Amino acid sequence: MMLGEESESADYWKKCGDEALANGVKGVVMMGAHWDCVGPSKIEVSTNPNPGKSPVAYVHPSKYVDYKLVPDLEGAQRCVSMLSADGFIASGNDKFEWIHDTYLILIRMFPGGCPPTTILSLNSRFDPHFHMKVGASLRSLRDEGYLLIGTGGAVHNLYRNRWAPMIKYSDNFAQETPPEEWAMEFRQSVEDVITNNSGPELRRAMTRLMKHPRFRDAHATDDHFMAAMFVSGAAGGEEDTGTYGQLKAETWELTNMCNSQFTIGGWSRTVPAAA
Ligand SMILES: [Fe+2]
């Protein structure tokens, strides 16, 4: 699968990682797509001091088993405190094993070593506004040099992918036909929203995407779209008005699944240069 292979997106992640290190990244805070917790207003934060990695289909273990994960226990505690102060029922989870949606990206971004990283869960109700507010709650971490990442997908419907080339030839990038109309349509709307809205307008436009007529075609389940809500919260404050997202890379796989890589904001804006 894409997270394990060379791709334009993987090259871009490496570039982001290099840039983060060059700017003295203090830590990484990530919301993925595969970990959700149950209960109204609940959110969990990874506090496992020695997290294992859950295995991933279609990626050879040699690509990830030896990579050392570095959990940011201090940062996790900060996240719990900030989220609690904003009314979330937030708690640490010291048993959580990291999942490929986050660790495979860290491996690509930081092949020389993982910076201190905190993983945030989703809430299983998949409320877009809830996840946007999680991002808003943690937005100020950016000013301290934390990199906030949401990892999911612009178009991600496993039921509508073309699996045959993957299963027969291990070729996830094969496109025997173009992506279907519903996938192209929704992918374009995601790009339009992120590149043409900023500040609180971005938050409103992102959450509104879940009412898009093609949303359910593009996402059979809501889990892979929640991270985009988190990002809109984290990069959609009043102070972010005028800072538009940029589409920096994109990789389609399994014909209909679109992985678009957006960046909102930059280091020079959010992190004061070191004296
Ligand atoms: Fe996934």
TrEMBL record:
Keywords carried by this UniProt record: Metal-binding, Oxidoreductase, Zinc
Source organism superkingdom: Eukaryota
Domain Extradiol ring-cleavage dioxygenase class III enzyme subunit B: 10-238
GO molecular-function term, one example from the UniProt record: oxidoreductase activity, acting on single donors with incorporation of molecular oxygen, incorporation of two atoms of oxygen
Gene3D superfamilies: LigB-like
Cofactor(s) listed in the protein's UniProt record: Zn(2+)
SUPFAM superfamilies linked: LigB-like (SSF53213)
Keyword Metal-binding: yes
Entries under Pfam families matching the protein: LigB
Family: Belongs to the DODA-type extradiol aromatic ring-opening dioxygenase family.
PANTHER family for this protein: 4,5-DOPA DIOXYGENASE EXTRADIOL-LIKE PROTEIN, AROMATIC RING-OPENING DIOXYGENASE FAMILY PROTEIN (AFU_ORTHOLOGUE AFUA_7G00640)
Protein name: Extradiol ring-cleavage dioxygenase class III enzyme subunit B domain-containing protein
Species: Cryomyces minteri
